[in-house]
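User: tokens in, sequence out, please.
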């Protein structure tokens, strides 16, 4: 049985992800690491309505009897934990970020807050996504350098020392993309306010 405090943490972050439109009703997944153990959302569970039985505990290296119930992207979470010092992972399907990932190889914030928090968000792609070893290795490798990355056309993966931190990067990414889209929709000449904007592409 998962500790009540851990469940509350999952329940609150899952609810916030749904309320912030970062996932659809049954999309996305979240996990935390405790030593050589992982707790991850159950396959098919609704992030906005998590119940205690929706949390599945398994090993970082080896499966337990209940692992068949774990998210199909457990392989990706495991790869991230092995490659980085992360203790929490948030995978979301932010609509605006996914849209921008279809036309660019990196998302560069144009707003001050986004630049400060995320600097630059790389967009990676694989031929076979959704829980494949290829996807797991590609995402984990990118997260060695970045807080959050986008899988083209799929969604974001963010790391943190807590679920709250990983959620912050995810929510900030979607805000960054929303601002970019608003700015492009206005179709007006942007005013230089932070000096040397082109250099931000080299972060």
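Assistant: Sequence out:
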């Amino acid at each position: 049985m998962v500790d009540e405090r851990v469940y509350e943490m999952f329940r609150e972050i899952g609810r916030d992800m749904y309320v912030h439109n970062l996932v659809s009703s049954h999309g996305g997944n979240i996990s935390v690491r405790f030593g050589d153990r992982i707790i991850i959302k159950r396959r098919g569970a609704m992030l906005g309505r998590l119940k205690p039985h929706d949390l599945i505990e398994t090993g970082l290296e080896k499966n337990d009897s209940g692992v068949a119930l774990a998210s199909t992207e457990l392989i990706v979470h495991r790869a991230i934990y092995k490659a980085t010092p992360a203790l929490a992972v948030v995978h979301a399907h932010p609509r605006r970020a996914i849209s921008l990932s279809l036309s660019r190889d990196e998302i560069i914030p144009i707003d001050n807050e986004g630049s400060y928090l995320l600097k630059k968000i790389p967009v990676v792609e694989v031929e076979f996504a959704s829980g494949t070893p290829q996807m797991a290795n590609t995402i984990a490798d990118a997260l060695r350098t970045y807080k959050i990355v986008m899988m083209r056309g799929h969604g974001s993966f963010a790391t943190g020392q807590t679920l709250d931190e990983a959620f912050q990067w995810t929510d900030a990414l979607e805000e960054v993309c929303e601002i970019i889209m608003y700015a492009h929709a206005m179709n007006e000449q942007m005013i230089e306010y932070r000096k040397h904007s082109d250099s931000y592409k080299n972060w």
